[in-house]
Structures are given as structure tokens and as C-alpha cells.
Amino acid sequence: MTDPRSRMDSLAHQRVEYGALGAADVAADPYSQFAQWYEQAADPVREPNAMVVATADPDDPRGPSARVVLLKGFSAEGFVFFTNYDSAKGRQIAADNRIALVFPWHDMHRQVRVRGIAVRTSAEESDEYFAKRPRGAQLGAVASRQSEPVESREALHRAYDRASAEYEGREVPRPEFWGGYLVRPVEIEFWQGQANRFHDRFLYRSTEGTPPLDAGDRWTITRLNP
Ligand SMILES: Cc1cc2nc3c(=O)[nH]c(=O)nc-3n(C[C@H](O)[C@H](O)[C@H](O)COP(=O)(O)O)c2cc1C
């Protein structure tokens, strides 16, 4: 068996090739920069659309909460994900719609961090996305009281079967409690890992003052200490 210490040793000496991110390389606006990195992440990163979403209800003494969700859309308006509006995150957003996202693209030694304001997508946009989901996922969304306690796995299956029977032979309508959020960014940071922990960090902020940002806003780009 390999001595675990020698394994630690070889990890410590592992050399990682980092790409650099210089002031001349970053795009003038963060949306183009994100689009470029997202495209580059498609190959090395297994699920580049998996992002951590952090929310906090200021009245909850337990503090902030974070979980992974999938990015389902991205444009100069912001970042879109879908979920249950009555879930823990939905309730936190209802209490305080300030939100943070992290794209942890370890395989590329990259990270993108977004702070922003979450607003519900329009009913039409949520309907459109819901209609494209596989029927099983639609029934799952109808049947799940996301984040609420459930007595057993069997109880979950029963709820699914009830939904399945209810909509047999017809389309599953989007439940009102399910839909999208658009995260309108206030600031976006791009982090590129570098040797000696001397990482490159660039922070985009709007010069227009109050959040959220509008597509036509101007940006300042600041390099941060690692
Ligand atoms: C890879 C991955 C993708 C996920 N995608 C979603 C998603 O798009 N929407 C969602 O509501 N939950 C998604 N989840 C589940 C969430 O992490 C979380 O368990 C759920 O939304 C309940 O969170 P809450 O109780 O904080 O509201 C995903 C989990 C993983 C690990």
C-alpha cells in the first residue's frame, strides 16, 4: 500500500499550469467576459452550468444559506435559474432579494462570483421553460413541496403518482409555485488561479450607481489583490 505521506508529498509538489488573466485580456464588459469563459469551460468542466447560489433572510438567526442550482439562461440582463418559489431559497429571496452566485470552475483554476438582485422571470418565460422539461421532471415539480419535511420516500412516490393520474392524457401545467429567477448583477468578479497563490482577480462594477445594472451601463474594471 502507498504510504499516505508520500501521496501528500506528491500532491504538494504537483505542478499546475495556470493561464494568466491580464488587464489587457479582460473584455470591456463582464457579460462578454463571462460568455468567453463559459464557452472555454464547456470541455474541461463537467457541469459548467452548476453554480452555487447564496441567499439570506435577515431575520433568520441561522444566517446565510447556499446550494447548487443549474444556470438555464444567460444574457446581458443577467443569469437565470429555475426552482420552487416556496422553497427555502424562494422564501429567503422573498425576504431579501440580494443574492450571490459562484461558478466553481476548479478544473480550469477559475471562479466567477456574482452579486446581484433576484427578480422572478415573467410567467411566460417560466411557462416556456417548464413546457420544455421532460414530463417526469414536470410531474416531479408538481409533486414536490421543495424543502418541506416528507415522511418517507414512499410518500414522495405517492405524491408523484397522484400528479401523474391527475394529468393523464394531457399536458402538465406549470404550478404557480414553480418558476425562474433572473439574477441582475451588481458586480461580477473573475478569478484566475496563479502560481504562488498570486491569483489574478478582476472586479467589474457599474459606474451608474444604484443596482441592478442595466445592459447599457458603463463598467469600471478593478484588479484586486489575491
Ligand atoms: C448539480 C445540482 C443541480 C441542481 N439544480 C437545481 C436547480 O436547477 N433548481 C433547484 O431548485 N434545485 C437544484 N438542485 C438542488 C438544490 O441544490 C437544493 O437542494 C434545492 O433547490 C433546495 O434548496 P433550498 O432548500 O435551499 O431551497 C441541484 C442540486 C445539484 C447538486
TrEMBL record:
<feature type="domain" description="Pyridoxine 5'-phosphate oxidase dimerisation C-terminal">
    <location>
        <begin position="178"/>
        <end position="226"/>
    </location>
</feature>
<feature type="binding site">
    <location>
        <position position="201"/>
    </location>
    <ligand>
        <name>FMN</name>
    </ligand>
</feature>
<comment type="pathway">
    <text>Cofactor metabolism; pyridoxal 5'-phosphate salvage; pyridoxal 5'-phosphate from pyridoxine 5'-phosphate: step 1/1.</text>
</comment>
<feature type="binding site">
    <location>
        <position position="129"/>
    </location>
    <ligand>
        <name>substrate</name>
    </ligand>
</feature>
<protein>
    <recommendedName>
        <fullName>Pyridoxine/pyridoxamine 5'-phosphate oxidase</fullName>
        <ecNumber>1.4.3.5</ecNumber>
    </recommendedName>
</protein>
<keyword id="KW-0288">FMN</keyword>
<feature type="binding site">
    <location>
        <begin position="67"/>
        <end position="72"/>
    </location>
    <ligand>
        <name>FMN</name>
    </ligand>
</feature>
<feature type="binding site">
    <location>
        <position position="72"/>
    </location>
    <ligand>
        <name>substrate</name>
    </ligand>
</feature>
<keyword id="KW-0285">Flavoprotein</keyword>
<comment type="similarity">
    <text>Belongs to the pyridoxamine 5'-phosphate oxidase family.</text>
</comment>
<dbReference type="InterPro" id="IPR012349">
    <property type="entry name" value="Split_barrel_FMN-bd"/>
</dbReference>
<feature type="binding site">
    <location>
        <begin position="82"/>
        <end position="83"/>
    </location>
    <ligand>
        <name>FMN</name>
    </ligand>
</feature>
<keyword id="KW-0560">Oxidoreductase</keyword>
<feature type="binding site">
    <location>
        <position position="133"/>
    </location>
    <ligand>
        <name>substrate</name>
    </ligand>
</feature>
<comment type="subunit">
    <text>Homodimer.</text>
</comment>
<dbReference type="Pfam" id="PF01243">
    <property type="entry name" value="PNPOx_N"/>
</dbReference>
<comment type="function">
    <text>Catalyzes the oxidation of either pyridoxine 5'-phosphate (PNP) or pyridoxamine 5'-phosphate (PMP) into pyridoxal 5'-phosphate (PLP).</text>
</comment>
<feature type="binding site">
    <location>
        <begin position="146"/>
        <end position="147"/>
    </location>
    <ligand>
        <name>FMN</name>
    </ligand>
</feature>
<comment type="pathway">
    <text>Cofactor metabolism; pyridoxal 5'-phosphate salvage; pyridoxal 5'-phosphate from pyridoxamine 5'-phosphate: step 1/1.</text>
</comment>
<dbReference type="Pfam" id="PF10590">
    <property type="entry name" value="PNP_phzG_C"/>
</dbReference>
<dbReference type="InterPro" id="IPR011576">
    <property type="entry name" value="Pyridox_Oxase_N"/>
</dbReference>
<keyword id="KW-0664">Pyridoxine biosynthesis</keyword>
<feature type="domain" description="Pyridoxamine 5'-phosphate oxidase N-terminal">
    <location>
        <begin position="39"/>
        <end position="162"/>
    </location>
</feature>
<feature type="binding site">
    <location>
        <position position="191"/>
    </location>
    <ligand>
        <name>FMN</name>
    </ligand>
</feature>
<dbReference type="InterPro" id="IPR019576">
    <property type="entry name" value="Pyridoxamine_oxidase_dimer_C"/>
</dbReference>
<feature type="binding site">
    <location>
        <position position="89"/>
    </location>
    <ligand>
        <name>FMN</name>
    </ligand>
</feature>
<feature type="binding site">
    <location>
        <begin position="197"/>
        <end position="199"/>
    </location>
    <ligand>
        <name>substrate</name>
    </ligand>
</feature>
<dbReference type="InterPro" id="IPR000659">
    <property type="entry name" value="Pyridox_Oxase"/>
</dbReference>
<feature type="binding site">
    <location>
        <position position="111"/>
    </location>
    <ligand>
        <name>FMN</name>
    </ligand>
</feature>
